[in-house]
């Protein structure tokens, strides 16, 4: 009787361990697929996100937002976008064109990834003597 | 009383019997130790009596996925790639021990992403090399043959940073000069032979136009172990295990994180010298497409077909 109880609790413990393990694996896999911003540099606050939740090879669109320290939108900043693949030592085959959408918002297109893998998109904004930079890490499928 | 023989034992016994049958059949053909490996795989080397050799080789590479920078295997999804490489090569004997080699490759690429397919082609990186046999095969009964190689890769192809096509199909080379060196050890136990190839390639720094910086790929270290058997005169079956490791990429002298590469694989090759001058070769090369069997590297299955003419 005691033996079967012990077996049952062992089984429960294993089940708990297995479900926790696989939940962690699932969460990390989902998290891996999402683009991650790697921090900001400079006085201007630059944020960027790709339109596609799961970026694919080929042409993509990047949405950018630039604000100053006080949170005021910067509409006429000079924006540069450089996608590159750091682990392979090459950039993108195309240079994205930047379109101002007003209220500190910009669109960069095409952001081209010529192959699947881990890419970085370096987005830089300049306005007079002030600048800001952010790097977006992307897993391209 | 009867007992079932476990399946593993049955398989092993069958394999052993097959192996013994092959080995015991093959010696009847009186294979020559000098020649089995020379034309068995890849460009190889000159046969003892040849003045020069020329060949053409076609390679079809099908991308199945890639190992990311954490060595995890990722299947391609909504993306496919196919590459056809073709090369003309020649080996010219300078002396009994020395030869020079030239390889002129051409590349045709196709990549599909979603609904768009793109093609690109061009001359790939030219390779010029020399080989010197310190000890020729069979020269000393108990010593293996020892040969050294030196080569230079000339960036005549288009590197990744020079690509113009959206999906980079016009990339046909690596875009930098490289100097290579290798050592080959070989021992024949007719009709079997075993060969160990150790090689290294040192890429020279190149200019990265998009970043305006200097870039240098890591040192490549290659190891290959080849085992072969001659069935009938001129017909050789070889098995190859290979491992490549490329060091980290440096930009302006600073090593980039997770940029080293590992590529492991195995190949099976058959070569047939159907006349004293002509040899046909074919091989299939594959990795083990699962986690941990590669790093920061595309996973491709490769099929080779080559034709070789030896002049004497």
According to CATH, the fold-level topology of chain B is Porin
**What is the first-to-last residue Cα distance of chain B?**
66 Å
Overall 3D shape of chain B: globular
Residue ranges of chain B: pLDDT <50 for 5 or more in a row? 22-31
Q: Count of DSSP E strands of chain A?
A: 9
**Number of H/I helices of chain B:** 1
In spatial order, strands of the major sheet of chain A run 1-9-8-4-5
CATH architectural group of chain B: Beta Barrel
Number of helical segments with 4 or more residues of chain A? 1
Q: What is the number of domains of chain B?
A: 1
By CATH's scheme, which homologous superfamily of chain B applies? Answer: monomeric porin ompg
Estimate the mean pLDDT confidence of chain B.
89
What does this structure look like?
- The complex is a heterodimer of chains A (141) and B (312).
- Chain A has 141 residues and is α+β, with helices and mostly antiparallel strands.
- Chain A has one helix and nine strands.
- In chain A, strands 1-9-8-4-5 form a five-stranded antiparallel beta sheet, with no helix packed on it. In chain A, strands 2-3-7-6 form a four-stranded antiparallel beta sheet, with no helix packed on it.
- In chain A, a hairpin with a 2-residue loop joins strand 8 and strand 9.
- About 7% of the residues of chain A have low confidence.
- Chain B has 312 residues and is mainly β.
- In chain B, the strands form two sheets. Chain B has a twelve-stranded antiparallel β-barrel. In chain B, strands 10-11-14-15 form a four-stranded antiparallel beta sheet, with no helix packed on it.
- The longest helix of chain B is centred in the first third of the chain and has 19 residues.
- About 3% of the residues of chain B have low confidence.
- At the A-B interface, strand 5 of A face loops of B.
């Amino acid at each position: 009787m005691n033996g079967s109880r012990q077996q049952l609790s062992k089984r429960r413990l294993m089940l708990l361990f297995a479900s926790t393990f696989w939940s962690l694996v699932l969460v990390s896999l989902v998290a891996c697929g999402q683009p991650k911003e790697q921090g900001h540099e400079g006085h201007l606050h630059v944020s960027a996100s790709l339109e596609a939740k799961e970026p694919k090879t080929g042409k993509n669109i990047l949405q950018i937002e630039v604000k100053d320290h006080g949170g005021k939108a910067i509409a006429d900043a000079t924006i540069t976008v450089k996608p590159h693949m750091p682990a392979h030592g090459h950039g993108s085959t195309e240079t994205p064109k930047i379109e101002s959408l007003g209220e500190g918002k910009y669109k960069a297109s095409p952001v081209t990834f010529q192959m699947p893998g881990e890419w970085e998109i370096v987005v830089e904004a300049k306005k007079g003597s002030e600048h800001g930079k952010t790097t977006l890490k992307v897993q391209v499928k | 009383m009867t007992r079932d023989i476990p399946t593993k034992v049955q398989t092993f016994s069958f394999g052993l019997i097959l192996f013994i049958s092959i080995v015991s059949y093959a010696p009847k053909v009186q294979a020559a130790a000098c020649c089995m490996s020379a034309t068995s795989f890849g460009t190889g080397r000159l046969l003892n009596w040849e003045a020069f050799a020329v060949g053409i080789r076609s390679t079809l590479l099908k991308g199945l996925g890639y190992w990311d920078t954490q060595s995890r295997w990722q299947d391609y999804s909504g993306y496919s790639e196919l590459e056809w490489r073709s090369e003309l090569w020649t080996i010219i004997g300078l002396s009994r021990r020395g030869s020079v080699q030239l390889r002129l490759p051409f590349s045709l690429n196709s990549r599909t992403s979603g609904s768009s397919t793109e093609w690109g082609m061009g001359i790939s990186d030219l390779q010029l090399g020399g080989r010197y046999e310190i000890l020729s095969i069979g020269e000393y009964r108990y010593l293996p043959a020892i040969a050294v190689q030196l080569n230079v890769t000339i960036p005549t192809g288009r590197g990744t940073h020079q690509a113009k096509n959206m999906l980079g199909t016009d990339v046909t080379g690596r875009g930098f000069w490289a100097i290579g060196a290798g050592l080959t050890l070989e021992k024949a136990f007719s009709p079997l032979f075993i060969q160990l190839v150790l090689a290294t390639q040192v890429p020279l720094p190149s200019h990265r136009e998009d970043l305006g910086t200097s870039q240098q790929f890591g040192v490549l270290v290659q190891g290959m172990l080849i085992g072969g058997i001659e069935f009938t005169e001129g017909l050789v079956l070889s098995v190859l295990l290979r491992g490549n490791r490329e060091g980290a990429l440096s930009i302006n002298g600073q090593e980039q994180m997770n940029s080293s590469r590992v590529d492991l694989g195995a190949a099976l090759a058959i070569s047939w010298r159907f006349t004293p001058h002509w040899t046909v070769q074919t091989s299939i090369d594959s990795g083990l497409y699962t986690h941990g069997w590669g790093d920061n590297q595309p996973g491709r299955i490769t099929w080779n077909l080559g034709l070789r003419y030896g002049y004497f």
